[in-house]
Write a sequence for this structure.
């Protein structure tokens, strides 16, 4: 499926380049689109001011390279991409880009605007040799709905431009409470071009979740209930692929845990219970001068700044529960923070569909080019755009998953759950779609996909099913056909001929051997499949 999308987009860019062969400005745009398509997925972190975007970004990277204070740098769009050597390049709104020095303070990268204000800087490009950046480019954005109109305008200009698709392919949106401005932004991100894009490519994070329960050890349990309520909110659920609670400060601290911090936590864990409980009763009490511990107030303030009172309490609890090394402590704190869940959600729903999400942005930019620089004969370019629409099934899957979250699918309960799983709700690997174990062999998977295709095809043809049910079933069938193709179970894609002569052996009795028969069947399948796709996708444009 993905390879087909890649080939279609590469062909579209070739045709577009040939059509604009004498237009230098258009060729420059096409070259930029070609480069963008070869880059990793662009994933922006967005949310209101102080939602914890930079902290979560550091946690996802496992290194403190995004500024988390309230300085000027947090008001500038900053890209973090893979580079073999560390580089920082500042792009001013006027003038040439500037290479900036690399400077750390207490392990944290310091970004300097070189005497400029945030309003004078268009963006900052940070290249860093992190393996986690080879598959995704992370983009830290200023807070939306800020008291500073300039800051809000800067975020809007990047994430939801008026006359163009957004620079980001997908968004991780952080929210602490559900505000109207959150829903407004997510709608705008969907509708961020003249073409009214409606593909759902955002995941939600209930950020700073440790603060939900005032830093109590069970805070994340309460946060999960709130996140679940957010997921059931019809407006929000229709705009995101899920909401996950994350304690970003704990996650960042755990990913960058130092041996000296582990030793300090072990000291706290070894205190008498009464002394320990008095010391951890509140953040204020924790940093006061105290004779019950050998840790200085300065060390305790540093622990509080790095982990928060929730993180300190959790670290002490984990050590008392048996963590015997800094690596064991870090692993358990990461698990408790919710970081694994958001990384899984991003991986299964966004990165697994990276090719198609990137392609969607390329196609929208080509459409924009046609509007702004019309061609005398654009038939070949428009034909390439139409080919993508027919092939971009991954976008239909994302739309169906969002529908499943925002309202009940028009199916019976068992079928609704299965439909969400088949279109990738639990991951896009074949065994996950089919509900089989990771070790299932090809025979088991082939049998399962045959069975499910037969079931869902019956539903598409049932005279008792309404139009909405049949529409969902067709999307599910298309996903199953992709699974069948992936695992080589191509026989599942068509019905056996009615005139089977059991005595004739392989073939169809017309003198053809099995290989010839299979080749003919596959040609017929491709022809029939194209007809089906035209019918399915003519109902609803996956880009709209």
């Amino acid at each position: 499926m993905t390879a087909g999308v890649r080939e279609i987009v590469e062909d579209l860019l070739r045709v577009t380049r040939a059509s604009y062969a004498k237009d230098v400005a258009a060729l420059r745009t096409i070259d930029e689109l070609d480069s963008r398509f070869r880059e990793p997925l662009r994933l922006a972190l967005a949310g209101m001011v102080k939602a914890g975007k930079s902290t979560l970004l550091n946690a996802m990277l496992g290194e403190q390279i995004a500024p988390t204070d309230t300085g000027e740098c947090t008001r500038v769009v900053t890209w973090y991409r893979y580079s073999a050597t560390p580089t920082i390049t500042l792009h001013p709104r006027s003038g040439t880009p500037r290479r900036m020095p690399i400077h750390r303070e207490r392990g944290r990268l310091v970004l300097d605007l070189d005497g400029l204000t945030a309003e004078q800087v268009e963006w900052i490009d940070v290249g860093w040799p992190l393996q986690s950046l080879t598959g995704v480019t992370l983009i830290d954005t200023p807070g939306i709905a800020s008291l500073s109109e300039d800051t809000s305008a800067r975020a809007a200009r990047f994430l939801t431009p008026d006359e163009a698709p957004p620079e980001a392919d997908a968004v991780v949106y952080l929210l602490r409470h559900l505000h109207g401005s959150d829903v407004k932004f997510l709608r705008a991100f969907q509708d961020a071009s003249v073409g009214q894009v409606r593909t759902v490519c955002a995941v939600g994070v209930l950020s700073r979740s440790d603060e939900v329960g005032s830093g109590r050890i069970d805070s994340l349990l309460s946060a999960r209930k709130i996140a679940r309520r957010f997921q059931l909110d019809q407006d929000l659920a229709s705009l995101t692929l899920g909401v996950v609670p994350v304690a970003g400060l704990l996650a960042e601290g755990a990913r960058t845990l130092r041996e000296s911090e582990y030793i300090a936590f072990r000291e706290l864990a070894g205190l008498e219970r009464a002394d320990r409980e008095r010391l951890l009763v509140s953040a204020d009490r924790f940093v006061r001068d105290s004779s019950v511990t050998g840790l200085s107030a300065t060390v305790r303030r540093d622990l509080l700044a790095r982990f928060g009172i929730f993180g300190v309490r959790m670290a002490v609890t984990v050590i008392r529960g048996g963590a015997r090394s800094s690596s064991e402590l870090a692993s358990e704190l990461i698990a408790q923070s919710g970081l694994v869940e958001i990384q899984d959600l991003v991986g299964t729903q966004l990165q697994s569909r990276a090719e198609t999400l990137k392609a969607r942005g390329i196609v929208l930019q080509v459409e924009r080019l046609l509007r702004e620089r019309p061609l005398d004969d654009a038939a070949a370019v428009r034909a390439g755009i139409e080919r993508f629409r027919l092939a971009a099934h991954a976008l239909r899957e994302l739309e169906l998953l969002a529908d499943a979250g925002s309202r009940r699918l028009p199916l019976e309960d068992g079928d609704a759950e299965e439909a969400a799983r088949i279109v990738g709700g639990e991951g896009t690997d074949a065994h996950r779609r089919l509900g089989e174990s990771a070790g299932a062999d090809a025979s088991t998977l082939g049998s399962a996909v045959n069975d499910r295709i037969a079931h869902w095809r019956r539903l598409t043809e049932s005279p008792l099913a309404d139009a909405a049910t049949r529409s969902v079933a067709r999307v599910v069938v298309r996903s199953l056909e992709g699974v069948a193709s992936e695992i080589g179970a191509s026989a599942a894609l068509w019905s056996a001929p009615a005139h089977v002569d059991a005595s004739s052996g392989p073939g169809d009795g017309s003198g053809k051997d099995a290989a010839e028969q299979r080749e003919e069947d596959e040609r017929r399948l491709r022809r029939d499949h194209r007809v089906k796709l035209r019918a399915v996708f003519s109902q609803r444009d996956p880009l709209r």
Notes: The chain is about 55% helix and 10% strand. The radius of gyration is 27 Å. Confidence is low (pLDDT under 50) at residues 192-197, 490-544. The longest helix spans residues 297-320.
